[in-house]
């Protein structure tokens, strides 16, 4: 992942548009976390915590992992301002190396599109999860209007299901839940949520 871009964006990352999209995503993710009060969650590619810091009431602990120190600094300020006691941050890039971590739930929200080797990161996340753990992915549907050298142009449901199954995930579900104007590289796009079990 190109850290420097996100390092530069960190301070001004939480724009009104991003906050609005985050609210939509949080609303969709919350039901996935029912009965998870005793569970640990890793938000991989957490950025400034726009999503996961709105989920702290549903789980036992949250670890915000990002490869941008600046993003995590913004997240730490939020954690301290809001007096959140069950969330920590970790500076790490799992595409380079994976620390010894285990979690019951891993959340990946609009992150997969930035990772060139999709199958490799899915394998890493599979290994991180406890047995019976859940992977939740929020991502853009494939969009042919988008072409960028460093970003996937979204994912087809079939493509993702196949990748998740190959890694070993079970009961893979994928559904589109939102259509928005100019939300993906200034193009109209739709987002899906996928959940599966290790």
Summarize this, please?
It is built from 5 helices and 7 strands, in the order ααββαββαβαββ.
Averaged pLDDT: 95
Q: Which CATH top level class fits?
A: Alpha Beta
Quote the distance from N terminus to C terminus. Answer: 26 Å
As a percent range, the share of strand residues is 25-35%
Per CATH, the architecture is 3-Layer(aba) Sandwich
Largest sheet: 7 strands, mixed
Q: What structural class do you assign from the helix and strand content?
A: alpha/beta
Q: Spans of 5+ residues with little confidence (pLDDT < 50)?
A: none
Helical fraction: 25-40%
How many structural domains in the coordinates?
1
**Secondary structure: number of strands:** 7
Radius of gyration: 16 Å
Look at the structure and name the CATH superfamily.
Vaccinia Virus protein VP39
- Helix-strand pattern, N to C? HHEEHEEHEHEE
Q: Categorize the overall geometry.
A: globular
Give an overview of the whole structure.
The protein has helices at residues 3-9, 16-29, 69-82, 118-128, 157-167; strands spanning 40-44, 61-66, 87-91, 103-109, 129-140, 170-184, 187-197. The protein is an alpha/beta fold and 198 residues long. It has a single domain (3-29, 36-190), classed as Rossmann fold (3-Layer(aba) Sandwich). The chain has a 7-stranded mixed β-sheet. The chain is globular, with a radius of gyration of 16 Å.
């Amino acid at each position: 992942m190109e850290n420097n871009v996100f390092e530069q964006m960190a301070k001004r990352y939480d724009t009104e548009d991003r906050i609005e999209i985050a609210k939509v995503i949080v609303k969709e993710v919350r039901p996935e976390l029912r009965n998870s009060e005793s569970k640990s969650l890793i938000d991989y590619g957490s950025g400034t915590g726009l999503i996961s810091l709105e989920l702290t009431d549903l789980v036992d602990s949250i670890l915000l992992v990002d490869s941008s120190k600046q993003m995590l600094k913004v997240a730490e300020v939020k954690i301290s301002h809001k007096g959140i006691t069950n969330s920590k941050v970790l500076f790490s890039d799992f595409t380079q190396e994976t620390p010894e971590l285990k979690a019951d739930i891993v959340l990946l929200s609009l992150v997969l599109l930035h990772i060139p080797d999709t199958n490799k990161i899915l394998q890493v996340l599979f290994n991180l999860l406890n047995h019976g753990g859940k992977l939740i992915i929020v991502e853009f549907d494939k969009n042919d209007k988008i072409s960028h050298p460093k970003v996937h142009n979204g994912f087809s449901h079939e493509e993702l299901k196949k990748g998740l199954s190959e890694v070993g995930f079970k009961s893979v579900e994928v559904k589109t839940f939102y259509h928005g104007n100019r939300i993906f590289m200034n193009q109209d796009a739709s987002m899906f949520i996928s959940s599966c079990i290790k």
